[in-house]
Amino acid sequence: MPTKKKNLSYPLWHPYLPMNNIEEEVTMLVEGKGCRVRDQHGNQYIDAGGGLWSIQCGLGHPYIIDAITKQLHHLSYGTLFDSRGNEPALLLARALVAMSPNPLEWVYLTGSGSEAVELAIKIARLHWALKGRDDKKGIAYLDRSYHGTFFGSMGVTALIEQKKEFGPLLPAIFSITAPDPDRCPPDTSYVDFSINCARELEKLAVEGNIAAFIAEPILGAAGVIIPPKEYFQTIKEICVKYDVLLILDEVATGFGRTGKWFATEHFGIEPDILLLAKGINSGYLPLGAVLFSEQIGNTMLEEKCGLGHGSSHNGNPPCCAAALATIDVIRNENLIEKSVESGAYFRSRLEELRVYPWIKEIRSIGLMLSVVFVQEDGRNVTQEQVDLLCKALKNRGVLAYPGGASLVFCPALIISTQEIDEVVDALQAVLKSVRLHDGEMDFVAKAEALT
Length: 451
Ligand SMILES: Cc1ncc(COP(=O)(O)O)c(C=O)c1O
Known about the structure:
Helices cover 37% and strands 17% of the residues. By secondary structure, it is of the alpha/beta class. Strand 8, helix 10 and strand 9 form a beta-alpha-beta unit. The strands form four sheets. A seven-stranded mixed sheet has the order 4-10-9-8-7-5-6, sandwiched between helices. A four-stranded mixed sheet has the order 1-2-3-13.
């Protein structure tokens, strides 16, 4: 047996963060109910990030817990390998087909959003290979995208700094300009700029070897970028014209987050492949899904071709039971309507904070909101400044995530107006006590604090 050199008291490696000094910084959550959580020191927080933008129905929902518990007693494990099936997985697949925003006939259940992206890329390449188009391997993506951290999903993610060090990455991936309003030239309307961005797909597709284009309908990690309708309409036209499959990643935007079941509905476009995870089961257990069209399914059926993909937890019964229960709760508690109403209220309260010079923009759709910050001299804030704002907000009892130059709020859809008030009041207290300049964030003395 190898001798242990050192006994680390915190041997748990976290995503992204350097692990130096993490032990002192870690907020160990020990309890949560609804939108509220408590840490190991007894500090209470409102979780305005909804876990990781996933806890649609709030923490500790008895109906979902009951469904998971019942399923654990009934059949605690199941696989879809070797032609075995299980009822919750089938019921969930049927439910997803029935509720998909456009006709999508098939469902493959995954263990995460990243895995769903991975599989979507495989399906797109396989589809064209089966159609005799072995040259069609290219995957186009947006240069402000976030699609996950596996090799394929990281490949099509722009917002991961270590991509270079992890390379070589997936071959034949091509980024195009995201319709980020921040980059819109002053003499061009945002709609025209977005259409120009979409046209970059055409430049790539004209060569003929682009298999698919993947995008988030609303770019979450980039700071809640909401493209105009015309953007996706142009994208769809290009996809149809050049035989490019459209993959929409609704991992963050699905299940009521944007005030509709799926964000795709805001744009009226029909993806060939739709990706889901996070809110699919309120984040209670790991689960994702890939929905794909009859046409893609038929290509595989005609060739009697299986799908070279599978993991021990695809179609796991308790994970699927949690999803079925989540769909019930969203319906029974009118959480889509709540997302619209509470989103509008949250937005109206945030608008009051525009008196502070650090706010450049507020973006929102349903309960997906971001506050974009700016420095004293008009320059964009740095990542460090956004991290410090996040920390300051946490010190005032609110958890949220940074997204580009902004703070992103994606609370549970059950958030109350009182909880929204607490979040906005905390943000206000932070904004009036800071100064953002030269890449720094200073706390100003009480007497100087902005009113
Ligand atoms: C749009 C989008 N796609 C994919 C992912 C990756 O999902 P997961 O973290 O479940 O792997 C995320 C995660 O934040 C996401 O926001």
